[in-house]
Amino acid sequence: MDIRNIIKRPIITEKAAVLKEKSNKYTFVVDKDANKFQIKQAVESLFGVKVKNVHTSIYAGKSKRVGARSGYKSDWKKAIVKLGDGQEIQMSDEA
How far apart are CA 53 and CA 73, in angstroms? Predict the structure, then answer.
């Protein structure tokens, strides 16, 4: 698996911002098949930081309905990455 395909995007929410400020943890949406070791390697190589640990959780897709049509959102995986002391990831808030 290619390192650039493991991390899909950062999660930018109020809860993620609090985790970042209080305990130096960053939250990402990652590939569902990636394991903790692969996620750690991807973050370290892409951002040039030292990762202490990785916590992951898989979320089941929910059913959605638009008018008469119904379908499902995809399953996805979230990774919370804790960095070493003094480490920081620069993320732009421009959207």
Answer: 29
pTM of the model: 0.87
CATH architecture of the domain covering 3-62+72-83: 2-Layer Sandwich (3.30)
pLDDT in tens, 19-48: 999 999 999 999 999 999 999 999 999 999
What is the domain partition of the chain in residue ranges? Answer: 3-62+72-83
Cβ burial, residue 34 (10 Å; 0-12/13-18/19+): buried
Give the pLDDT confidence of 49-69 residue by residue, as tens digits.
999 999 999 999 999 999 999
